[in-house]
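Human: I wish I could look at a protein chain and see how it folds. This is the protein in question:
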Amino acid sequence: MGETKHQGPIKATKTPQPKHWVSPIPFGLGKVKPHHFRDTMKVAWDNKDNIGYATRILTQGVCDGCALGVSGLQDQTLKGPHMCTTRMNVLRLNTMPALKEEIVHADIDDLRKYSSTDLRKLGRIPYPLIRRKGERKFSRLTWNEAMEIIANKMKQLDPKQYAFYLTSRGITNESYYVAGKVARFLGTNNIDNASRICHSPSKTALKRSIGVGASTANYQDWFGTDVLLFWGSVASNASPVSTKYMLEAKKRGTKIIVVNPYSEPAMDKYWIPSNMESALFGTKLADDFYQVNIGGDIAFMHGIMKHWFEMEDRHYGSAINHKFVQQHVNGYEDLVNHVKQQTWDDIIKSSGISKERIIELAELLARSKNAVFAWALGLTMHSFATDNISQVANLALLRGYLGRENSGLMPFRGHSSVQGSGEMGADPFVLPGSGFDEENAKRMEQIWGFELPKWQGDIVGVTLENIVLPDDHERKIKLYYLSGGNFLETMPDPDFVEKALSELDIRVHQDIILNTSTLVDAKEAVIVLPAKTRYEQEGGGTSTSTERMVYFSPQIEGNKNEIEEARAEWKIYIDLAKRVKPETAHLVEFTSGQEIRDEIAIANRDYDGIQHLKKQGDVFQWGGAWLCEGGVCPTSDGKGNLISVEIPELGKKEGQFVVTSRRGKQFNSMVYKETDPFNGADRYDVLMNAEDAKQISIAEGEGIVVYNGFGVFQGRAKFVDIARGNLEVHFPEGNFLLPRGRYEKYAGIPDYNITVTVEKADRYNARKDVQYVEKQIDDLEVNAPL
């Protein structure tokens, strides 16, 4: 790949452009919208006991919030300071004092009265803790005692019987790398991470379509591209600083189009606090919304291509970039034949979009020289997610939107450094730099100096199911080592998850804070280890952004609320390795972050350059400004592959709805607001179309029950602009409706979408139908709006 280097941050367009304003009334007074300035003042107040350290985190550290990659207050996209609410919300995790002793050692039932939100606010884990079977309270341990218990248990078990999991709460590349290396050194391939649950289909699909598993473009490519198309992504909510990029793009003539069942208010109108013009008058972000059905994206894209091929039949070259296709793409004829077989009736029924509207978008794209396609969980959280994303790649390949300025494919990442987790090898299907294949395994064995286990490790969902296997099963998981995470609030079927977690012999929670899953029983013991944050990690650490920028975040001094016994995550893994296999542990020994970076540069050749990152502000981008530059893909023949996919059958019966989960004002499973500032929705509101509600005589605000064969959710109807036949409920409250064991066929992530029936609460409760599991969720009155 020829590598054009990224040019670094550029100046934003200063001239105000009233045509993009939401309203001439300053600060959107009287509208339902986030109160950024008020929220910022509140964050400052919450951090007042440690304000100097909090300020240094914001001005020197790399953001541990979203995956845009803001270092200090600067990024590589636009000049000027950047700050957002997501980053402010997670700030307190890094500055707060330890939990008070009377809380740490309270009766377990008293602790269980707290929600995860409450537990988070109470403070950090102060020292290693244990709660053995039958004990009512956590008691204090020394680090030595805690690590000995874990190591001794591991020595008794077959490595297939323990597993590691890492979440996405600001963990650095160094920690992901050491965790992956130590897991393989100990003999297990059961290692997984949070980013794989969200975006592994993006990686799987892009690998087969274009040979790379990362964003091919930069944020700067948004500026002045003809079309910036977001599929199933509320980028403004997940990554608020991206709204500045959208505003800049619009000022340079870019059209922003959103494909999503719900016309998301945050993608429609936004007040960007760090841009004076937008803070005052707001910005109309999206130029158009295509309200596709949940799961209807493949059909919608079939419709776009069908119209393109009809245009081609009339006039060669009117829709397809034939030069690009002939030089750089395989499978054209097969795809044409496959798409022509799809009927317009099937396309319209599945997508929920009229033929006229599909043609409108198809023709806009046919006229557009450049386009950037970005997507998030709306495409990845399905059982056919890999096909969804290969279908997006099909559109880009047919038009040649690849490997050049203002064009490309961008999986829009949610959390800081989740891009790096798989690239470091903390995933059952990968090793640093490549897949878990024979050739790469041999290469890593030479670098690491020890033999790797060759059996296929399990993904997190299967690992949880393997806990309840019979005792003598060789894959029965008996010890689970968790670095962060709360499966009770992130996985489908929370009741099963709780049962599984309680059937482990030993569960280790290496974390900053307690959460509800930490309080679940275990057969022998629950051990809690206090971790350092990324800003406390000795020698600093690195994280990788959505656009493949690897940023250095230094160790930040002067934490008044320092947790003296907390340890850097990578150091804890090395300590564990030394205790389980002391005779060969020198093979996984690192004494500094620099040593780890030196080895990462060798283990993952894309990361050659990470070894030079040493101080605040240091950054490099692996792969250069554009992957597949000039249309040349890192596939076996250098070409991209068009992949024919089928329209999925959701099995929706007459009168049923399809439900998906949404994230409101939260960060992963951490909820920060009970009310969504963009639409005023409460956590138990069910977002639905008013016409649908009218048909089943449901009034707005009325108690309703959403149910299927897996579970029951009690909430209230809230009418929003969502495509008919579709519902949204908040995550994790709505996870009771999701069955376990339904995985995406290529990438193995859980499916977060399901068919359901909706009824008035009083009618449902009057029937108390025996065929449905009764699940008590907070009484409707408890959450009634004031």
User: Anything to note?
Assistant: The chain is about 35% helix and 15% strand. The radius of gyration is 25 Å. The CA atoms of residues 94 and 183 lie 27 Å apart.
